[in-house]
Amino acid sequence: MNIKNLFRRIDVREVSLSSPDITGILPIIGYVLVTMSFIDYISVIAEFQLNNFENELNSISLFAEHSWVFLIGLGFIFTRYFTDNQSDIRLLEVIFQKIFRWVILIMGIAFLLLIPLVFLDTGRLLKSFNDQINEQQNTNIEQITQLEKNLASVVNEQQLKILGRNIKMSPEELNLPYPQLKNAIEQKLITFKDSVRKETEKTKREKSLSTWKTSRRVIISLVILSFTFVIIWFKIGAAF
């Protein structure tokens, strides 16, 4: 057998097929995708936790992600209604489309109504995160303040060196004379406080940027999906 023959161009009509038109498999794939999308929707709803801001945001994001597969499935289903394939349409499918278009409209409206919830939950989530960060900051500052009190109560060089070792001062710094060592410890504690505040603000900014970046993506997806569903609803109504 000549290997080159396997790669030569052929006329598909020469191949023995019961039907040369295989576009009929696209609606079948479409119905499977739509069905699987609804299964995914149900699984998301089952895990939905009201008043859990992070869970609500994740659930809305999952709804949006599963909807792209849903739209692809709809696209495959409607290949049945192309001019060349209309002879293959069943009456049951037409009835299904007339009913299902209202489900699509409800989904479009629901996604549009979820947008304010994304804004609200994002703000709540960031507030909760900031409260935790502030609490941690206050704890760290209290610890530094306690060290400052300990420094004020130091009465000899030995106690001062113990305090210096507790805040990880270098051997060279610990060998400084008593007044210089005490001053170095004071400055180090002040630096610690400033570092805690700066690190807290940096963490807040980074968390805010990353959270809003994710939320913006979800909001844009919901807007696009909402208008797409409404257009599909209108188009199906105009067709039937």
Question: If you had to describe this structure to a student in words, what would you say it looks like?
Answer:
With 240 residues, the protein is mainly alpha-helical. The radius of gyration is 33 Å and the shape is elongated. It has helices at residues 25-46, 53-77, 91-152, 157-166, 171-174, 178-239. 77% of the residues lie in helices and 0% in strands. It is built from six helices and no strands. The model has no long low-confidence stretch (mean pLDDT 83). α2 (53-77) runs antiparallel to α3 and α4 (157-166) runs parallel beside α6.
What is this entry, summarized?
With 240 residues, this protein is mostly helical. It has helices at 25-46, 53-77, 91-152, 157-166, 171-174, 178-239. 77% of the residues lie in helices and 0% in strands.
Distance between the termini: 54 Å
Shape: elongated
Largest beta-sheet characterization: none
| Average pLDDT number | 83
Number of helices: 6
Percent range of helical residues: over 70%
Percent range for β-strand residues: under 5%
Order of helices and strands: HHHHHH
Low-confidence stretches: none
Structural class: mainly alpha
- How many distinct beta strands? 0
Quaternary organization: single chain
Radius of gyration: 33 Å
List keywords for this structure.
240 residues, mainly alpha, 6 helices, 77% helix
What layout of secondary structure does this protein have?
Blueprint: H1 25-46, H2 53-77, H3 91-152, H4 157-166, H5 171-174, H6 178-239
